[in-house]
């Protein structure tokens, strides 16, 4: 036997005793506690070993999958994939997400072409599901948008080089904000706008010098599309507008003079030669010869009268013309406010007068007296209020100022 110190009170005691005689400390309980500590330690060591094995195994699968992707060994990856857990697949998909970013950055920086980036993306997705590689679909869409932008930029350059500045501007405007060419495209747009403004302004001045004010205004308006606040352009537009209005007014006056009917006026078209003879307000449309017995036409309503406009018409073409097609768009304006459009047509030779029907025609070189009879209220014939008629005779505009 030997002496030891009690771990509780530190008094010397025999090493064989189970209980300290001084403080009552139990050596049996201490043994059980020591055993429990040893057991817990063993369990921790075992579990740690298992965890280490699992981690090493997982890392090996993911690492091998990466190597297969890098070396384009799809067959080898398929074998590894069969052994991979869900967690391993997710970890590998996260790796592929980073590769997607790298591929897109290469394309964005123009270090690879559209064909190459498409091939790389197609290769990548063979190693996982697109649902796991969360940025795959969105990146594909970004690639397509960027490719369309590149195409627009290239086409814009071609159009600019060929002098098609408007088309070039439209194409440069389609360059995407995420395209590395975006800033350059906008600079080109502004430079081309200046060229177009100057081109259109010069063309406008040339047209104005030839008194072609409508064309001049068209060119100025095009220039203003690219520089809407340019005071020089706005001033030119105002000047050309006034000159065009004066020019249009003069044209209208000349056209009206040309269209005005006067006794003996001859209208000659490709098909007819017509001489204006007279115009009268009457209740009877009579034939050329009223000596002796003759027929005439009157309005069916006693409250109406005719404005009878008479032409001598000859067919100067080589084909038959139909009388009902001679006049169109008839409009009589009374007192500057009342409009009448109802009319009948008649034709006469000698003592006969006939209503024009669809079959009535003049053969080549034949002629007849043609009556355009516009139906008006009787009141019109009993006043001196202004009455003016517009119509087309074989597509030539005519104006009759009756009073």
Characterise the protein shown here.
The protein is of the alpha+beta class and 403 residues long. The chain is 48% helix and 20% strand. The protein is built from 9 helices and 14 strands. It has helices spanning 27-70, 74-81, 86-108, 114-125, 136-161, 165-172, 182-209, 213-226, 231-259, and strands spanning 3-5, 12-14, 266-268, 272-282, 304-315, 321-322, 327-334, 338-340, 343-349, 352-355, 361-362, 367-377, 387-393, 396-401. The strands form 4 sheets. It has a 6-stranded antiparallel sheet, with no helix packed on it. A 4-stranded antiparallel sheet has the order 8-7-13-14. β3 and β4 (272-282) form a beta hairpin. The longest helix has 44 residues, at 27-70. It is elongated, with a radius of gyration of 52 Å. Mean pLDDT is 90; it is low at 44-58.
Summarize this structure briefly.
This protein is an alpha+beta fold. 48% of the residues lie in helices and 20% in strands.
Helix content: 40-55%
Structural class: alpha+beta
Reading side by side through the largest sheet, how are the strands ordered? 3-4-5-12-9-10
* H/E element order: EEHHHHHHHHHEEEEEEEEEEEE
Distance between the termini: 159 Å
Outline, from the CA principal axes?
elongated
What are the segments in which pLDDT stays under 50 over at least 5 consecutive residues? Answer: 44-58
Rg value: 52 Å
How many individual helices? 9
* Largest sheet report: 6 strands, antiparallel
Tally of DSSP β-strands: 14
Strand content: 15-25%
Average pLDDT over all residues: 90
